[in-house]
């Protein structure tokens, strides 16, 4: 087994909207996550033509409103992370705790104070905070009144928010990411762009225009952060799904190449290399997208203020088959594809492919030459408390072990890998379904899909396993 770097950032990851709860406490405003109903039909409802971000508790549940009560229990939770030996904790700041509608001129001091306490709790245990500035939780007001990121005014509103939190915490937090899974906008614009069918989410012209606004906003924040403190590291964050053609048919290989460029490559090229990729014109033509509206200095900003590292989520690989339109299909993390006959499938239909992680890390590093940080990876599964009062999640341990083994091989290949923060290190509300029963954590939270439970925490078998992994720096798996 290849040794991991001595400063490797082992840890775990969460998002404010999926774990904090307290959705209107201490001056917090409503976010888009607060308006997303729970249950397996969550995405179907948000995709509906008549969805308008209204909250209707008489017909829907809203599990994000309570999350796992991490807002009040962060000290207990971070103490458990420290017991596992975390070197880092990736979490997000809720934009609406700082600027409730996004339009305020003065930030909410109670929100800033809360995150100051969270950060100081991490530092007390020598845990490096890794902060996502925007993780699927933009102010609901900006989605309803501005139509989300298609409106260029969001650039300055976002930069205002980012500047407040970076200036406040620059002396305590080194690692930041601007937007979570920015490329997810190409499949589900509601989460990252705040756009639904009634506000243009089915219009590719508006989607790419909105993405351009995020690229500019990200570049401005990179510039700003480096001016505040040139030792800060500002990253992007992307979904990465290694892709395969179903067979050696050239048409399947071309289709896989094009899908990889769009999903894995487009946003990385802009944010990490500082320019729109060569295939942009061909891709825009495919979707009927006309040249985007840009301010005079947009491309210069993007060119000169690229990210310092690439954060990525990796859960599964994808297969494309354009030869057989009837090929069996599987789901995935905002992107699915044809069923791979060589891979197992999770409880939620995602195919797991540890070797694909090594392939993806090599592809990313050889293309962009930026340090990589795996900030999401994990197995969503149904966990059952057995008669001995424990949760024996060997299936999760096997999943993580296989991926860590492939990370080591990627390091041996020469990949510069900064760290690994599995998702979510404690059970939380699923972004895709709003369920609690889709569990990822090393720590079980007693809450069911209907919000019932004590919210008490309990260690799973994977807790002690991961503790050993970190203690041995990945040598004992």
From TrEMBL:
GO MF term set: beta-glucosidase activity
Pfam families: Glyco_hydro_1
Cellular component, GO, one term: cytosol
GO biological process, one term: carbohydrate catabolic process
InterPro entries noted in UniProt: GH (IPR017853), GH_1_N_CS (IPR033132), Glyco_hydro_1 (IPR001360), Glyco_hydro_1_AS (IPR018120)
Domain of life: Bacteria
Gene3D superfamilies linked: Glycosidases
Hydrolase is among the record's keywords: yes
Transmembrane spans: none
Keywords annotated in UniProt: Glycosidase, Hydrolase
Active site residues of this protein: 376 (nucleophile)
Family: Belongs to the glycosyl hydrolase 1 family.
UniProt protein name: Glycoside hydrolase family 1 protein
Organism of derivation: Vagococcus xieshaowenii
Origin organism lineage: Bacteria, Bacillati, Bacillota, Bacilli, Lactobacillales
